[in-house]
Structure formats: structure tokens, C-alpha cells
């Protein structure tokens, strides 16, 4: 079957080139396990667009072969001799992702950042969700423009709120303006947010990624030495299916996974104390156990979380002694312990 696979791959053109992926020399090892084909991609360039295209074109070609059930791509990016000097002043870069939208990833990112800051760490928060930047509203910085760094005209200053340094495209465009950009522009913005912002010394830079495994995720993995990925999910099966894809993304790009945070885990009635598992129960913990990564904690559904996000005063600030604020703080502690033991 491997010969047939190579034959089909010989028909797949490398994006922007006239040669096939075989002639371009980007195909590495090919293995087959019970109908699942794993193909190693030996990328010669940090080209997020090319990778995204190949993630579709290669599986599409190979799945035509009888007996092929699924196709996994193992992406090996070019090795850099050293970490970019511009990022050496950031101790840990953490990427929060979800695989799908609507699970509260930005809410988790915001409250983790504030919790870490309260522990005494120097924290930055980079909003990499260019199409749907919610961080400015959640952090109460809507309408506050970014400023040029007077000490370095080539850089911009992050906005500081609740002890956290923040950068978001939402602070640079009109409030209700849609961002209608193709991938290359998204990539450029992420690069600039990493390299052209005066972050100074940071213990943690939390990067709030958009849903999925697209341009922003690839650019971050290529441009920075990501210390770890944090997967946010709800207990329900649909969310866990996409969490598995997020985990697979980190594994393929050789990004360590810090762990899983289960959001909207349960709801406790404030009047009678009844616990309702609205989105099922224990899915995040079971997923973490299955893929052998740490379970960082569960966050209950609470109206204070929604109110805090809408009003620009996250629950970790507005009600730090609440059950949910303590749950975010516990998750932050788990992250610290996991990184220390890595």
C-alpha cells in the first residue's frame, strides 16, 4: 500500500510550486496501522499557509486509496539554532486553545492571567483571536488606545489592567468593525504582537488563541518557543471531540501540553444547592486521563463569571473569595506546579 500512497502523493503539488510534495522532498516516513496512515512532513520553511493547504490536500489524496480509514500528518518544522533573542525575557509562553468556540476559553485566559498576577508573577495577555477579540471588553479596556513606546518608536506599549499587560487587535480598530483579513495578515499581526510590543520581563505570557488549529496557532508555534498548551473544554462529547484535535495539534507541533481545564462543569442552584450537570459530568477529566496529561481543574457555571466578563471586571477581581474565583486560582496553581515539574 505504501507504493500506492507514494503514487498518490506524487500527484499532490506543493503550494506555490510546480513540483509535487514528493519531488520537493517534504515527505518523510510513512507508516500504516490498521488502516490509519501516518505521514511525516519535513517542512523546509515556516509557511503556515502551505501547511494548512497540505493538511487538506494530502489526506484528501490518500483517502482515495482502498483500505485507508484515516490519515495523520506529523509536521516537522525547520529547526532554529536558537530561541529568538526578542523573546528571551519571557519565561513561560502558554497557549490556551479549545478546538471549538463557545467553551469559555477567553474567560479562562483572563482569569488565569489575573490569578497568576495576584500570586506575584509578571503576566502578559496576548489576544490572538484576531477575528473575534473579546479580551478588551472582558478586561475593561475598551476604548483605551495603544500607544507608541517613547523609548523605542518601533514598538508599542501594552495596556495594563489588573496587574496584567494586554495587547489585542480590539484596541486598534473601531468597536464593531469586522476584521476581514486573509491568513498572511493574521500571521503578520501575531508576529508583531510577539516581537513589536514592549513586554519587558515577564514570568508568563498567556496567548489566547482562536478556536481551531489554523493560522494563528501555526504562527505562534513557529515564531515562539511555546512552553505549553492549555486545552479548555466543557464536559460534553461534542466539545471533547474538538479538544482531542487541539491536543493532536500540540503533539504534532511538539508543543508540551500543560493540561486540560474543564469549564462550565456544573451548576449549583444558589437557592436550594442542587447540583445540575448541564453539559454532562467528568468528560474533561476522563479525556485528560485517556491522553495522559494533567487535569488542571473544573470551573462551575456561575452568573458572576458572565457578569464580570460583560462589565470588564472578571470574577477573579470582582469577587476573589467566590467559589469560581478560587477555582481559577487553583487551576493557576496547578499550571505552576506542572511547569515546575516538567
Explain what this protein looks like in three dimensions.
- There is one protein chain.
- The protein is an alpha/beta fold.
- The protein folds into two domains: 2-76, GMP Synthetase, Chain A, domain 3 (2-Layer Sandwich); 85-257 and 283-341, Rossmann fold.
- The protein is 35% helix and 25% strand.
- It has helices at residues 2-9, 48-62, 105-118, 135-138, 183-195, 215-223, 237-252, 283-291, 303-311, 315-318, 323-341; strands at 27-33, 36-42, 70-76, 90-97, 123-127, 147-149, 152-157, 159-161, 164-168, 202-208, 228-233, 257-268, 275-276, 295-301.
- The strands form three sheets. Strands 4, 5, 8, 9, 10, 11, 12, 13 and 14 form a nine-stranded mixed beta sheet that branches. The chain has a three-stranded mixed beta sheet with strand order 1-2-3, with helices on one face. A two-stranded antiparallel ribbon has the order 6-7.
- Strand 6 (147-149) and strand 7 (152-157) form a beta hairpin.
- The radius of gyration is 21 Å and the shape is globular.
N-end to C-end Cα span: 40 Å
Mean pLDDT over the full residue set:
91
Number of domains: 2
Q: Indicate the CATH architecture of the largest domain.
A: 3-Layer(aba) Sandwich
Return Rg in Å: 21 Å
| Run of helices and strands | HEEHEEHEHEEEEHEHEHEEHEHHH
Low-confidence stretches: none
Number of helices in the DSSP assignment: 11
Estimated helix fraction: 25-40%
> What general outline do the C-alpha atoms trace?
globular
**Helix/sheet category:** alpha/beta
| CATH topology descriptor of the largest domain | Rossmann fold
Find the count of extended strands (DSSP E, 2+ residues). Answer: 14
CATH homology superfamily name of the largest domain:
P-loop containing nucleotide triphosphate hydrolases
CATH class of the largest domain: Alpha Beta
Work out the strand percent.
15-25%
Major sheet: 9 strands, mixed
Amino acid at each position: 500500500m505504501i507504493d500506492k500512497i507514494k503514487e498518490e502523493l506524487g500527484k499532490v503539488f506543493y503550494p506555490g510550486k510546480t513540483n509535487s510534495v514528493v519531488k520537493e522532498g517534504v515527505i518523510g516516513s510513512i507508516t500504516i496501522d490498521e488502516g490509519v496512515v501516518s505521514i511525516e512532513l519535513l517542512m523546509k520553511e515556516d509557511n503556515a499557509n502551505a501547511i494548512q493547504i497540505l493538511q487538506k490536500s494530502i489526506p484528501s489524496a490518500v483517502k482515495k486509496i482502498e483500505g485507508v480509514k484515516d490519515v495523520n500528518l506529523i509536521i516537522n518544522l525547520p529547526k532554529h539554532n536558537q530561541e529568538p533573542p526578542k523573546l528571551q525575557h519571557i519565561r513561560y509562553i502558554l497557549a490556551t486553545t479549545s478546538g471549538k468556540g463557545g467553551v469559555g476559553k477567553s474567560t479562562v485566559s483572563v482569569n488565569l492571567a489575573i490569578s497568576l498576577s495576584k500570586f506575584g508573577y509578571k503576566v502578559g495577555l496576548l489576544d490572538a483571536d484576531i477575528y473575534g477579540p473579546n479580551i478588551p471588553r472582558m478586561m475593561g479596556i475598551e476604548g483605551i488606545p495603544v500607544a507608541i513606546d517613547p523609548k523605542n518608536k518601533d514598538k508599542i506599549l501594552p495596556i495594563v489592567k489588573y496587574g496584567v499587560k494586554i495587547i489585542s487587535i480590539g484596541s486598534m480598530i473601531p468597536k464593531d468593525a469586522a476584521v476581514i483579513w486573509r491568513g498572511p495578515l493574521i500571521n503578520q499581526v501575531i508576529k508583531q504582537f510577539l516581537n513589536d510590543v514592549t513586554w519587558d520581563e515577564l514570568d508568563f505570557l498567556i496567548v489566547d488563541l482562536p478556536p481551531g488549529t489554523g493560522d494563528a496557532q501555526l504562527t505562534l508555534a513557529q515564531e515562539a518557543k511555546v512552553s505549553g498548551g492549555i486545552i479548555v473544554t466543557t464536559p460534553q462529547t461534542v466539545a471533547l471531540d474538538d479538544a482531542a484535535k487541539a491536543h493532536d495539534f500540540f503533539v504534532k507541533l511538539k508543543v508540551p501540553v500543560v493540561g486540560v481545564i474543564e469549564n462550565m462543569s456544573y451548576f449549583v442552584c444558589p437557592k436550594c444547592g442542587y447540583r445540575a450537570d448541564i453539559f454532562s459530568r467528568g468528560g474533561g477529566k476522563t479525556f485528560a486521563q485517556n491522553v495522559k496529561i494533567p487535569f488542571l481543574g473544573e470551573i462551575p457555571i456561575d452568573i458572576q463569571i458572565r457578569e464580570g466578563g460583560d462589565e470588564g471586571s472578571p470574577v477573579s477581581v470582582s469577587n476573589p473569595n467566590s467559589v469560581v474565583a478560587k477555582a481559577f486560582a487553583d487551576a493557576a496553581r496547578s499550571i505552576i506546579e506542572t511547569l515546575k515539574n516538567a
